[in-house]
Amino acid sequence: MKVRFHLFLTLMVMLPFGLMAQSPVGTWQMSVPDENGKMTPLKVEIAEGGAYTLDFGADGVIDTKGKYTVEGGKMTIQDTEGSECTAQGVYTFKVEGDTLTMTRVSDSCAGRGGPNGVMTMMRG
């Protein structure tokens, strides 16, 4: 009985650390093709509180702003400024080490999520 209590207590103490590891909050980088197929760096800032920004070209200029919510292992995103498409997109997401992978569940914004519906970003 005592062993179970200690295991339960350890789990309760460690649970918040496990949940933090799955948080998408942070600075992420990836490359995306431009209209000519040339790969362009993209810097993504995902903030606490449900906001994100996109910096195409990683030149310090915010090109798109948006909002997001996280529920379970899914993230709902919606561009609010700087984008022609403001529909919501739903993605599953996984954070493993310094990698954030978002996989499209549904999104009517053409091009968002790439041709295969998977975005892989590196922390940085």
The gist of it:
By secondary structure, the protein is an alpha+beta fold. It has a single domain, classed as Lipocalin. Helices cover 16% and strands 51% of the residues.
Helical fraction equals 10-25%
E-strand count: 8
Q: What's the CATH class label? A: Mainly Beta
Alpha-carbon distance between the termini? 45 Å
CATH topology (fold) name: Lipocalin
- Portion in strands: over 45%
Instruction: List segments where confidence is low: pLDDT < 50 over at least 5 consecutive residues.
Output: 3-21
Query: What order do the SSEs take from the amino end to the carboxyl end, as H and E?
Result: HEEEEEEEE
Query: Given the structure, what is the number of helices?
Result: 1
Let me know the largest β-sheet: 8 strands, antiparallel, barrel
Number of domains: 1
Mean pLDDT: 86
Describe the structure.
The chain is α+β, with helices and mostly antiparallel strands. The chain has a single domain (24-123), classed as Lipocalin. The protein is 16% helix and 51% strand. The protein contains one helix and eight strands, in the order αββββββββ. The protein has one helix spanning 2-21, and strands spanning 26-33, 39-47, 51-56, 64-71, 74-81, 88-96, 99-107, 118-123. An eight-stranded antiparallel barrel has the order 1-2-3-4-5-6-7-8. β4 and β5 (74-81) form a beta hairpin. The protein starts with a helix and ends with a strand. Mean pLDDT is 86; it is low at 3-21.
